[in-house]
């Protein structure tokens, strides 16, 4: 890529963040037309990435990178291949219509500008995630999707349900993100590479590495939580507390598919192993069935669609886990189809709610005359979701059946799971696209009517795109599906798609069985819904309730720990602080067997021996002191001994500073001790003294060993040479120590001064404490009562 192309690509990825900054101002400037202006940003991003479709289809890949934190090997780098290109097109293309839809859905909302800003932040995070090449950069965008989704889900923060759903999504996906970070760090250690494009060239290195299993499990932790795989599926339906534009974007092309993207991206280096082909199909198949069964129970249009999203993600994970080329092709096709029909159907559900006043399917009917455009979009998207021709959903279903039926192992089980899951999805598609529009007209909370163009433009375009991609099958396969499949397989792969099969085959028969089973179940939908609800009521407990119990347990544990370590006793605080310090300096040395060798005793002059004897005498005086005040004064002997050592070794400025610090410390401590109501002696028993003495020995001995280890290491002169060379030329000072303190470490010195000032203020506050006589308290109480009585008389 040319430098200009690199900058343009980086700008395209980061453009949503700039749009987020200007969105509130644009909303105030353009009023109700702000959505049209803001939608130009994702539209430009879409056309930019569309320019990569041709070159990527020819097998080319691109990297756009700029240095970010070079000292740590972290670059702002983006990798463009078939996988990232299709995801970027979905995010920006669907995002364009989501911005328009939000403009109509939240028209007149006082916080619409803030909502647009959050939406653009979310869009930018997803673009950075799917194109990120540097593993650390990718992780930053990964976690940014969790943070921005938290803001979007909790947008209506005055409602407790919104706050709970936002917190739940953040905890689950954020926790998985920490696991993913650990996995990335292990990948960097195992491969020696920090760029994803280079990791993908490592071949079987990761699969044969001793760290493969922990890497696999940690990556799965990030992917499963983000893409709501069982048993982490519960957060996704609860995220429906967000406004419908968020739901449509979240479920169609963005965050929930991030985990699927990660698994597809890592397939060339992690896929194909026994662990991969066992765990992913197992959990993906379970998620598919759990999602569709829970969807049947719902009557809220958004929840029905939300649970089918969970099921669809399970289907994608199951197919990706097979590592079978035809199944992977089915996964790629289904990902495209799902993004189109699910985005359209969510916007349809929001439009019905906006214009009819309810999303409850049992309270809807006969809307096709009042909302003809919305009905047409719902019908087209529902047919694609049902897997019927001539839509992209039908082609995807045929290919994935071909893949599962042709598996060398587990073909029958996975095929049955896929058939049952797809049949139940047909039931939900009919429930969303048929029930609200057919049958007798039902009185709704609002007079139902067709929404403005901002509300139906997205569903119409997305549903028609699902039809167009199927009608232009060969172009879809060559330009989109083939390059993406090549990224999954790790080698150039051609695909051959057909709208209709030319002969009767196993996938066609399985499709017919799916449709027949779906129609039968749809005709019994009410009875099926009641049965599922009864079974779930009998089971009772579930992961969603378990999350609340886990959070409550953490809160109780935190309270218990706080009561122990923050009980209000200074003695406890000091004991814990020094105990942890002792463990921190002693345990690593013990585990690493890194104790330093004892240095030989150097020849000392008599005056040097005298200084050491003074220090030892001061230590003895502290230990045998009869009162606390005597111990404090004796403690100053140690500091004076250190000051004398500085003086003997030619550091008079340090010696003077040490003398001043020790003198002030002793004076201040003595002053405070005389003002506080403390016992003159330490009355603890022998056991307590022995325990604290052991901690003191541990801290002192550990620090001594640490200092010996540091001094025995080879001395690095680079910093000394730097200060010697630049103290005069840069800081204009000849005293290197002073220059370091005042200039090179000026902020550190400022911080130290602030600490001293704060400590002085605390000492002053302690000194000024006085116990007021009871008679003064009585007078104050009497005066307060008198003032209250006077106020009462006035009123």
Automatic annotation (TrEMBL):
The keyword Heme does not apply. Residues 692-777 form the MrpA C-terminal/MbhE domain. Residues 133-418 form the NADH:quinone oxidoreductase/Mrp antiporter transmembrane domain. Signal peptide: none annotated. GO terms for molecular function: antiporter activity. It is found in: Cell membrane; Membrane. GO terms for cellular component: plasma membrane. Residues 614-676 form the MrpA C-terminal/MbhD domain. The keyword Metal-binding does not apply. Keywords: Antiport, Cell membrane, Ion transport, Membrane, Transmembrane, Transmembrane helix, Transport. GO terms for biological process: monoatomic ion transport. The chain crosses the membrane at residues 6-27, 34-56, 76-101, 113-130, 167-189, 209-225, 276-296, 303-320, 332-352, 373-392, 412-433, 453-475, 502-523, 573-592, 604-624, 631-650, 656-678, 690-710, 753-769. NDH-1 shuttles electrons from NADH, via FMN and iron-sulfur (Fe-S) centers, to quinones in the respiratory chain. The immediate electron acceptor for the enzyme in this species is believed to be ubiquinone. Couples the redox reaction to proton translocation (for every two electrons transferred, four hydrogen ions are translocated across the cytoplasmic membrane), and thus conserves the redox energy in a proton gradient. PANTHER family: NA(+)/H(+) ANTIPORTER SUBUNIT, NA(+)_H(+) ANTIPORTER SUBUNIT A. This is NADH dehydrogenase (Quinone). It comes from Polymorphum gilvum (strain LMG 25793 / CGMCC 1.9160 / SL003B-26A1).
């Amino acid at each position: 890529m040319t430098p200009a192309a690199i900058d343009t690509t980086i700008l395209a990825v980061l453009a949503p963040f700039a749009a987020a900054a200007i969105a509130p101002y644009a909303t105030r400037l353009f009023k109700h037309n702000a959505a049209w202006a803001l939608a130009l940003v994702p539209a430009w991003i879409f056309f930019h990435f569309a320019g990569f479709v041709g070159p990527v289809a020819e097998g080319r890949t691109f990297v756009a990178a700029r240095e970010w934190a070079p000292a740590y090997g972290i670059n702002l780098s983006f990798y463009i291949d078939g996988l990232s290109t299709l995801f970027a097109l979905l995010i920006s293309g669907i995002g364009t219509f989501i911005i328009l839809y939000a403009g109509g859905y939240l028209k007149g909302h006082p916080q619409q500008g803030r909502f647009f800003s959050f939406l653009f932040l979310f869009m930018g995070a997803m673009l950075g995630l799917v194109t990120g090449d540097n593993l650390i950069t990718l992780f930053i965008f990964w976690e940014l999707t969790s943070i921005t989704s938290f803001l979007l889900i909790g947008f209506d923060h005055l409602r407790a349900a919104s706050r709970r759903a936002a917190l739940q999504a953040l905890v689950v996906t954020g926790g998985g993100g920490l696991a993913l970070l650990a996995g990335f760090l292990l990948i960097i250690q195992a491969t020696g590479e920090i760029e994803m494009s280079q990791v993908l060239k490592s071949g079987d290195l990761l699969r044969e590495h001793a760290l493969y299993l922990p890497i696999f499990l940690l990556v799965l932790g990030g992917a499963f939580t983000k893409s709501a795989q069982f048993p982490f599926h519960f957060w996704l339906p609860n995220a429906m507390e967000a406004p419908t534009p968020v739901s449509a974007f979240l479920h169609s092309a963005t965050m929930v598919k991030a985990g699927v993207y990660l698994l597809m991206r890592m397939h060339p280096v992690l896929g194909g192993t026994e662990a991969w082909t066992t765990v992913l199909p197992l959990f993906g198949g379970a998620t598919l069935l759990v999602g569709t069964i829970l969807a049947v129970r719902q009557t809220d249009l958004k929840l029905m669609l939300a649970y089918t999203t969970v099921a669809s993600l399970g289907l994608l994970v199951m197919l990706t886990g097979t590592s079978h080329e035809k199944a992977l092709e089915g996964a790629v096709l289904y990902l495209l189809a799902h993004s189109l029909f699910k985005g359209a159907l969510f916007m349809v559900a929001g439009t019905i709610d906006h214009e009819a006043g309810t999303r409850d399917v049992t309270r809807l009917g006969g809307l096709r005359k009042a909302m003809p455009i919305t009905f047409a979009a719902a019908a087209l998207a529902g047919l694609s979701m049902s897997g019927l021709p001539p839509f992209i959903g039908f082609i995807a279903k045929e290919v994935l059946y071909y893949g599962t039926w042709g598996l060398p192992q587990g073909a029958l089980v996975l095929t049955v799971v896929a058939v049952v899951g797809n049949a139940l999805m047909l039931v939900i598609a009919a429930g969303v696209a048929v029930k609200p529009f057919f049958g007798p007209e039902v009185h709704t909370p609002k007079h139902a009517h067709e929404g403005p163009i901002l509300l139906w433009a997205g569903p119409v375009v997305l549903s028609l795109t699902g039809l167009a991609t199927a009608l232009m099958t060969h172009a879809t396969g060559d330009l989109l599906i083939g390059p993406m499949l090549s990224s999954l397989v790790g080698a150039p792969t051609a695909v051959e798609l057909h709208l209709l099969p030319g002969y009767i085959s196993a996938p066609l028969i399985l499709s017919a069985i799916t449709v027949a089973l779906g129609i039968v179940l749809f005709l019994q939908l009410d009875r099926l819904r009641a049965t599922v609800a009864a079974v779930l009521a009998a089971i009772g407990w579930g992961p969603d309730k378990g999350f609340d119990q886990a959070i409550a347990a953490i809160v109780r544990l935190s309270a218990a720990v706080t009561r122990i370590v923050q009980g209000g006793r200074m003695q406890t605080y000091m004991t814990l602080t020094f105990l942890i310090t002792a463990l921190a300096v002693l345990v690593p040395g013990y585990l690493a067997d890194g104790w330093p060798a004892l240095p030989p005793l150097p020849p000392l002059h008599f005056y040097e021996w005298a200084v050491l004897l003074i220090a030892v005498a001061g230590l003895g005086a502290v230990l045998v002191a009869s009162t606390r005040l005597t111990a404090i004064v004796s403690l100053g002997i140690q500091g004076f001994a250190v000051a004398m050592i500085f003086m003997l070794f030619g550091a008079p400025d340090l010696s003077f500073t040490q003398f001043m610090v020790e003198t002030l410390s002793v004076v201040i401590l003595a002053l405070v001790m005389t003002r506080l109501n403390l016992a003159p002696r330490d009355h603890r028993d022998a056991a307590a003294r022995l325990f604290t003495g052991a901690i003191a020995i541990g801290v002192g001995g550990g620090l001594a060993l640490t200092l010996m280890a540091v001094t025995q290491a080879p001395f690095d002169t680079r910093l000394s040479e730097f200060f010697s060379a630049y103290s005069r030329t840069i800081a204009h000072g000849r005293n290197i120590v002073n220059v370091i303190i005042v200039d090179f470490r000026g902020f550190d010195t400022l911080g130290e001064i602030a600490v001293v000032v704060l400590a002085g203020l605390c000492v002053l506050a302690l000194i000024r404490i006085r116990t007021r006589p009871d008679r003064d308290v009585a007078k104050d109480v009497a005066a307060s009562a008198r003032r209250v009585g006077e106020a009462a008389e006035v009123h």
